[in-house]
Design goal:
By secondary structure, this protein is α/β, with parallel strands linked by helices. The chain contains nine helices and eleven strands. The strands form three sheets. Strands 6, 7, 8, 9, 10 and 11 form a six-stranded mixed beta sheet that branches. Strands 2-4-3 form a three-stranded mixed beta sheet. A two-stranded parallel sheet has the order 1-5. Helix 1 packs across helix 3 and helix 2 crosses helix 3. The protein is elongated.
Length: 262
C-alpha cells in the first residue's frame, strides 16, 4: 500500500480564490489546491528554494518539486486555454501565525502583512487598537506591560473590547500578542526605539507619549484629535528604566535587562 501523504503546512488561506472570466460555461474550471498555491507563493513569489519551501511546509523536497510541477501546469492550462482558475481543497493545515516563532521562512503574520491584507480586503472599515493598561489607565512603559486592552472599532464605533495578557517582557513578546489579535494601531506612553521599529515593520500605526484613561484616548483617536508626542514618549521610557532598573543610562545594563530599548 502507498504511504499516506503528509499534511502540508500553509501560512494561511488565500485571500483571493477565483480568477478569470466565465467565458465558456461548458469548460470546467481549473482547481488549484491550497497546498499547490502555497508552493507557488513560496517558490515563485517569495523566491524561496525548494529546500526552504519544504522546511517551511514540513514536507520533503521531492514532494515540493512534484507539487510545484503540477501547480505550474495548472496555471499554464488556465492561461493558455482561457479557463477559470479556482483555489480550493487539498491536503493541508493552516498555520495562522501559530508557528511564527519557529517558522524558518519570512513569516507574514509576524511582519503583520497577512493581518494588514485581511483587514484591507475582508474588513471594510475595521480598526483594532491596543493600549497597555493598568487600572484602566495607559501604562507608561510599552515593553513592561502585563496586559493590553484591545478595542475593535467599526465605522468609528467601538464594537468590542478584550483584555490580552502578555507572555513576557520586551517588545518581541508584545508584538506577538498584537499580531495574533490583528492589531493595526497602538496607543501608549513611553516606548523605546526598538519597539518603534518593530511596530513600523509590522505596519502598525503608533500614537506614543499619551497618558490618561485608555477609553478617553480611543475616543480622541476616533474624533481625530489624538496626536503623538514622541519627546514625551522617550522621556517616559527613560524614566521607567531609571525606576525599574536603577540605571540612568539603559545602555549600561543591556546584558541583564529585559527592556525593549535594544
Amino acid at each position: 500500500m502507498p504511504r499516506p501523504s503528509r499534511c502540508r503546512r500553509v501560512c494561511a488561506e488565500p485571500i483571493f480564490k477565483t480568477f478569470g472570466a466565465d467565458t465558456n460555461e461548458t469548460i470546467s474550471p481549473i482547481t488549484l489546491f491550497v497546498d499547490e498555491y502555497e508552493v507557488i507563493r513560496l517558490v515563485d513569489y517569495e523566491k524561496r528554494t525548494h529546500e526552504q519551501c519544504a522546511e517551511q511546509m514540513q514536507i520533503s523536497r521531492t514532494t515540493v518539486t512534484e507539487i510545484y510541477e503540477k501547480a505550474r501546469f495548472k496555471l499554464a492550462d488556465a492561461i493558455v486555454n482561457g479557463k477559470k482558475l479556482v483555489i480550493s481543497g487539498g491536503h493541508y493545515k493552516t498555520c495562522q501565525g501559530m508557528a511564527q516563532r519557529n517558522c524558518p521562512g519570512r513569516c507574514r503574520w509576524r511582519r503583520g502583512n497577512q493581518c494588514q491584507m485581511k483587514n484591507t480586503f475582508e474588513g471594510a472599515n475595521i480598526m483594532k487598537i491596543a493600549i497597555p493598561v493598568k487600572n484602566e489607565n495607559i501604562y507608561q512603559h510599552f515593553g513592561m506591560a502585563s496586559v493590553f486592552k484591545i478595542y475593535t472599532v467599526e465605522n468609528n464605533q467601538i464594537t468590542a473590547t478584550t483584555m490580552e495578557e502578555t507572555n513576557g517582557r520586551g517588545h518581541g513578546a508584545m508584538l506577538d500578542v498584537l499580531l495574533a489579535n490583528a492589531v493595526n494601531c497602538v496607543i501608549c506612553g513611553g516606548i523605546g526605539d526598538g519597539a518603534i521599529q518593530a511596530l513600523n515593520q509590522a505596519d502598525i500605526k503608533l500614537y506614543a507619549g499619551i497618558s490618561g484613561i485608555a477609553d478617553d484616548a480611543v475616543t480622541s483617536l476616533m474624533a481625530g484629535t489624538l496626536q503623538s508626542d514622541m519627546q514625551a514618549a522617550c522621556s517616559k521610557h527613560q524614566h521607567a528604566h531609571q525606576g525599574q532598573c536603577a540605571h540612568g543610562d539603559c545602555g549600561q545594563h543591556h546584558g541583564n535587562c529585559h527592556c525593549d530599548c535594544k
